[in-house]
Specification:
Largest sheet: none
Structural class: mainly alpha
Number of helices: 19
Helix content: over 70%
Radius of gyration: 22 Å
Oligomer: single chain
Distance between the termini: 20 Å
């Protein structure tokens, strides 16, 4: 059996494992990002956090009903200082709510008013937009029913507008919300892809990648990965513009979580129909060099898994005719 056949056999085995792994990483990783933000809240407002966490469901229900009603009234009155306080209390309360409580909040009719706060006319109130986008992000982390509700009440255009907000925490929350919506289903993925401003905004963030904070970098790459994930894969002409940015980002990415998502994203971009052509384009864009300068002997199993899958995918392709990826190449010596 020749070298290429051996690699193809191994690739078939890894493909099955990859499909199983995709299901597991779908929302789990973004949930970790969201939990990380909640931990930050504990550090900043520990006394507050303990107070809200200790509340009963009945107490939270009363707060949700009262504050949701106040949001609409204060927004109509343009009482923005008081409105900020009410929205912040809502956010702190909703953080500890389960899905049934979140649905009760949705039924109050408050969400469309929060989405209104994300519109450009309220950009002069970034603190309000931070709190409103945080609530939207947490709702998007729920089940399909909640995620589809957000899309029905037209949250996507508002999120797209804020992708390039000068306020980092708003961008962080918007990326989290979009990635959760995209990760819910292929149908929602395609709806997000077709939303004006989402892909152009993401490309701008990829171009600015080196200047972004670690949290925003994680959000950018996870959103990109979720957009490219899922079979049938999205139209290549839509997602292809991300390729060169992602290849350029690979060697300068040190954060393990970001690197994991980035490797998966590149794997998705070179998979599916006409994958030989996709891999060839990626190799021409400098993929082999980027991977070679990124690989480390001390990588964890979480990083090695997508790396091996991706390298096997390349090695078994006709685009590897010059042997950039082979059992004796510098690319694979890390896995021996």
């Amino acid at each position: 059996m020749n070298q290429k056949t051996d690699l193809e056999t191994g690739l078939n085995v890894m493909k099955t494992k990859r499909e199983q792994f995709r299901v597991e990483i779908r929302k789990e990783k973004l949930q970790k990002i969201i939990e990380g933000k909640r931990h930050l809240q504990v550090e900043d407002e520990e006394g507050d956090e303990a107070e809200y966490k200790a509340m009963t469901k009945e107490q939270r229900a009363l707060i949700i009903k009262e504050k949701s009603g106040n949001v609409k009234r204060l927004l109509d009155e343009e009482s923005f200082k008081e409105l900020l306080n009410e929205v912040r209390i809502l956010r702190k309360t909703l953080v500890h709510c389960d899905e049934s409580e979140t649905r009760v909040f949705i039924q109050t009719g408050c969400v469309p008013h929060l989405i209104k706060l994300l519109q450009p006319m309220y950009d002069r109130f970034p603190d309000l937009q931070v709190e409103a986008s945080w609530i939207i992000m947490n709702i998007a982390s729920g089940d399909t029913q909640e995620t589809e509700f957000l899309v029905r009440v037209n949250v996507l255009p508002a999120l797209a507008e804020l992708l390039l907000s000068p306020t980092e925490r708003i961008v962080e929350h918007v990326l989290g919300a979009l990635a959760n919506i995209v990760g819910d289903s292929l149908n929602l993925r395609d709806i997000v892809l077709d939303t004006k401003g989402v892909l152009p905004g993401l490309l701008v963030l990829l171009d600015r990648y080196s200047k972004l904070s670690v949290k925003v970098k994680r959000g950018v790459i996870f959103l990109a990965s979720n957009i490219c994930r899922g079979e049938p894969y999205p139209p290549y002409e839509q997602v292809h513009p991300m390729l060169e940015y992602l290849i350029g980002i690979l060697p300068i990415t040190e954060d393990e979580q970001t690197l994991n998502d980035l490797l998966y994203c590149l794997g998705y971009l070179t998979a599916g129909e006409k994958n030989e052509e996709k891999i060839e384009m990626a190799m021409q864009a400098g993929l082999a060099k980027a991977i070679c300068s990124t690989l480390r002997t001390d990588w964890s199993i979480e990083l090695l898994t997508p790396a091996v899958i991706f390298l096997g995918q390349i090695a078994a392709s006709d685009a590897n005719e010059h042997g950039q990826v082979s059992p004796n190449s510098s690319l694979l010596v890390y896995f021996k």
